[in-house]
């Protein structure tokens, strides 16, 4: 590849940062810019990005606005939830799981348009730069990535605004010198960072939350929801067949209405920084509870325990940007194999921020009432067998105790 950059594909939102980046790429590299805006269900209109890009001189054929909601949930969110994936015990990876799809489309569009490079608006302090770039290199090892935040000196909102004013870059929302929060949203979650959250002792303000009512203000009557599973994925809610994106959209609405899915954590970024973030993941919280419930009656004990042992490694791979790595693909193959019998229905109860299991059933259930009962099981289980089992397992403990006591 020539060192000269003639065309760049930019992950473009139409906001201040990426609008400045668009012009900066032209100024710095004397190149054409192709804009790519992904609709991942962030709940905001994405079409204004087209008008903004046109205002900045990008021709129609170089403006890509893709509805990726179904692909996002089907090919990224659902496979992740088959593993019951949680990072550091709490985080459902809403931002992390969106990045490999964006990286994939950046590379695809670069190939379609004959671009020499891709570019993004992630800062040099965060995880997203790693996720975007690891994904891009894994999919196209020869691609060039331009990360303006690691190159320019526009390291404050004031400098960005000044640059925009000097070059007549259209900025519709002038919110003063500092916005309260840095937010990122998609169908799985909305995240909040910065502002008052930078002090981990400060409680998130009530007005910050966007998708959920507070548990205190949630309805006084519980809401029940039934999830139908096939091979570990939800295919219907309350008896109504739904596509993956429809499932998550619906569960976000019902979960948010019941105060489900709020989270406030301090997480360890891959680049070595501790970061405090607040998240709303109502649909994902419901999905996690439901999936573990259906697995509890359909998975063999050792398979379930092995999945739980592998999950933290799998979660870290996603958090750190290794979705397209061979080790993640290897783990995914094992996880997907385990889901062959994860079929059935789970009934959940949503009440003031809580999600509890109210029932589960499956044609592939391994739960045997005849064996599990506290009543007479008719000889299905010989309780006398437990004595030998216990003595064999106690042998090493007794040997050790005798040695210590001698």
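^ Assign residues to that structure.
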């Amino acid at each position: 590849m020539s060192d000269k950059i003639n065309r760049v594909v930019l992950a473009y939102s139409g906001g201040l940062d990426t609008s400045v980046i668009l012009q900066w790429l032209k100024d710095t590299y004397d190149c054409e810019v192709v804009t790519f805006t992904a609709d991942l269900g962030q709940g905001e209109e994405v079409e204004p990005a087209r008008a903004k890009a046109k205002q900045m001189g990008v021709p129609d054929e170089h403006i890509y606005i893709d509805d990726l909601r179904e692909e996002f949930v089907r090919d990224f969110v659902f496979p992740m939830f088959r593993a019951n994936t949680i990072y550091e015990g709490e985080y459902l990876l809403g931002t992390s799981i969106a990045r490999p799809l964006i990286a994939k489309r950046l590379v695809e569009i670069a190939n379609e348009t004959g671009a020499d490079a891709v570019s993004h608006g992630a800062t040099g302090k965060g995880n997203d730069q790693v996720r975007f770039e690891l994904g891009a290199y894994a999919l196209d090892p020869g691609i060039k990535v331009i990360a303006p935040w690691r190159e320019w000196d526009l390291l404050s909102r004031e400098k960005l605004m000044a640059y925009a004013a000097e070059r007549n870059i259209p900025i519709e929302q002038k919110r003063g010198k500092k916005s309260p929060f840095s937010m990122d949203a998609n169908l799985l979650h909305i995240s909040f960072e910065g502002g008052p959250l930078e002090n981990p002792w400060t409680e998130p303000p009530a007005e910050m939350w966007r998708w959920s009512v507070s548990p205190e203000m949630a309805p006084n009557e519980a809401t029940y929801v039934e999830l139908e599973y096939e091979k570990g994925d939800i295919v219907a809610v309350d008896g109504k067949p739904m596509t993956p994106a429809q499932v998550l959209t619906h569960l976000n609405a019902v979960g948010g209405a019941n105060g489900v899915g709020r989270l406030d954590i301090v997480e360890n970024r891959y680049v070595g920084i501790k970061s405090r973030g607040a998240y709303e993941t109502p649909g994902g919280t419901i999905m996690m509870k439901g999936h573990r419930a259906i697995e509890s009656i359909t998975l063999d004990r050792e398979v379930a325990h092995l999945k739980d042992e592998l999950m933290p490694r799998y979660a870290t791979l996603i958090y750190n940007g290794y979705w397209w790595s061979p080790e993640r693909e290897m783990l995914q193959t094992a996880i997907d194999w385990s889901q062959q019998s994860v079929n059935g229905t789970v009934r959940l109860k949503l009440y003031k921020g809580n999600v509890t299991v109210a029932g589960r059933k499956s044609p592939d259930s391994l739960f045997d009432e005849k064996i599990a009962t506290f009543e007479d099981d008719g000889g299905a289980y010989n309780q006398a067998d437990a004595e030998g089992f216990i003595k064999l397992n106690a042998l090493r403990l007794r040997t050790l105790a005798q040695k210590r006591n001698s």
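The mean pLDDT is 94.
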